[in-house]
Probable transcriptional regulatory protein BSF38_05274 (Paludisphaera borealis), 246 residues
Amino acid sequence: MAGHSHSSNIAHRKGLVDAKRGKLFSKLCRAIYVAARTGGGDPTANLRLRYAIDKARSVSCPKDNIERSIKKATGELGGENFEEIVYEGYGPSGVAVLCEVLTDNRNRTAGELRRAFEAAGGNLGATGCVSYLFAFKGLFIVDPQHATEDRLMEVALEAGADDVELVEGYFEVTCDHKQFEVVRKALEDAQIPTESAETSYIPATYVNLDADAGKKMLKLKDLLDDNDDVQNVYANDNIPEEVPAG
């Protein structure tokens, strides 16, 4: 598995946290709302809600914001009606892009995403045009200072993980998305902390970009991240290290 892009994509998203904290909180609370609406407001019985809450807490999202989102979803407060959609498209040089979206207006969001793709030299595509290039998996990022490769492989593979790989100074553990909770608990029980633990669309192949296309791809990611409706962006890009992020 060529995993060289996962950590850089995560680092890119993390780099946006401080600059766009308010917008990030709004997106995370929207994800909490949808999880609670579809599976109930009890995180002990709703794993999706628990993951959404954990993700919000990891970036210090205020407790009041989290609780308000759950109450809206369960009818204790007035709530919105969000729809879950995955949009697909092509970035510069044919990079495959998936956008996970929560929106209350499908037409508005599609128009905004189309303009974002076109502004960066890409185009929004039809459903299914690039999704076949990705596998939906559990992905854990582990700092090597917290576990040796042998120890991590012992714990992760025994719990059903598919692979452990050292990528850009971090271990990446991948598993079938249905095994995510089993692997997460195994790492937790072994007291191996994770830098990131999430389900993610992982590319089967990557597109190597030159500096110019790399800049356009970063512009596209920034435009998509700026959109309130976009929850996550996945791409099979391999951007040169010399291209500055942001």
User: Anything to note?
Assistant: The chain has eight helices and ten strands. The radius of gyration is 18 Å.
